[in-house]
Amino acid sequence: MTKVLVIYAHPETKTYSTTDKFYQQFITAYRTAHPEDEIVEHNVSEYMPFPLDKIAVAIYNKALVNQPLNPDEERFKASRQAWIDEFVSADKYVFANPMYNLFVPTEMNSYLDMVMQIPDTFHYTKEDTMAGALAGKKAIHLQTSGGDYHGTAGGPNMSQLDLGHQYLQAVLHVMGITDFTGVYAEGMDHDPANAPDIMAKAFARAEDAGRNF
């Protein structure tokens, strides 16, 4: 059975959300095309319990000098490791978020900090280069933005400003995931008169991506 891990980052899911509507188009199409797959969903904007904070740094520093952890650090490490193990066990990854200031939301960044973990998802070789542990897996990035950064709404290609997508691609590449694509719903704020048509086309792209992911 294929395991799909969804990392969703948006706090406004109970009211109208373009991000949520976009994601639902994708995941509904995916479920229809792949009914046998297991799908695990996390909204990290609502629950991101193990960030790279002072406890995580203390655990890392103690490991370098082989120093024992205190009980709070042991509990933190075990619980954090469960999230990392879940990430490693997945076959496919879906990242869904709105663009915040040319980047991904803070909580998604914190999640990536958590799972980008030696030796679980990558390691350093004798030549001091990074080698990923998750080769053969695939990922997709579903992102909404008010501006048109990738030209999907008819504007010029300004994808160089989409730092969040670039960062996500770079992090996944380090972990060995090179089968990575982006699907976007964008330009609604830039061209509000045509927003319904823009969203209809974006929904069609999301459905097509869901069927073929």
Automatic annotation (TrEMBL):
The keyword Flavoprotein applies. Binds 1 FMN per subunit. Keywords: Flavoprotein, FMN, NAD, Oxidoreductase. It holds the Pfam family Flavodoxin_2. It catalyses: N,N-dimethyl-1,4-phenylenediamine + anthranilate + 2 NAD(+) = 2-(4-dimethylaminophenyl)diazenylbenzoate + 2 NADH + 2 H(+); 2 a quinone + NADH + H(+) = 2 a 1,4-benzosemiquinone + NAD(+). Its EC number is 1.6.5.-, 1.7.1.17. The keyword ATP-binding does not apply. One of its GO terms (molecular function) is FMN binding. Residues 2-207 form the Flavodoxin-like fold domain. InterPro entries: Flavodoxin_fold, Flavoprotein-like_sf, FMN-dep_NADH:Q_OxRdtase_AzoR1, NADH:quinone_OxRdtase_FMN_depd. Its cofactor is FMN. It comes from the Bacteria. FMN binds at residues 99-102, 144-147. Quinone reductase that provides resistance to thiol-specific stress caused by electrophilic quinones. Also exhibits azoreductase activity. Catalyzes the reductive cleavage of the azo bond in aromatic azo compounds to the corresponding amines. HAMAP family: Azoreductase_type1 (MF_01216). Belongs to the azoreductase type 1 family. Homodimer. This is FMN dependent NADH:quinone oxidoreductase. The gene is azoR.
